[in-house]
Amino acid sequence: MAWRQMISLNRASLQTHSSSLSGFARFSSKSNPYAVKVGIPEFLNGVGKGVETHVEKLESEIGDFQTFLVTRTFKLKKLGLPCKHRKLILKYAHKYRLGLWRPRAEAMKS
């Protein structure tokens, strides 16, 4: 009899606990939609360190931002990007895909 009471109490506490877990949805690891539209120029300007000099080349050859995010190092090498810039682009693209980094929104100049 005592076992049945313990099991029923345990089930009841699990049911109330699982309903309270729904409040944690706002703390999920998925990032919220970003207010500023991010494209290749905004991304490269956010990375900085001289990478923004390759905006025209990357936009003409790759075009789409989603394709840019999954571009491999060999394709970037074929486009003539130096090693340091390839490493920076790939590092920040990986962080962007995980939602750990976003390019800063430029302040509006008045």
Automatic annotation (TrEMBL):
Residues in Small ribosomal subunit protein mS41 SAM domain copies: 40-99
**What species is given as this protein's source?**
Escallonia herrerae
**Pfam families the UniProt entry points to:** SAM_Ribosomal_mS41 (PF09597)
Superkingdom of the source? Eukaryota
Q: Which SMART domains match?
A: IGR
Instruction: Read off the InterPro entries from this record.
Output: SAM_Ribosomal_mS41
Kindly give the PANTHER family that the UniProt entry links to this protein: IGR MOTIF PROTEIN (PTHR34955:SF2)
Which protein is depicted? Small ribosomal subunit protein mS41 SAM domain-containing protein
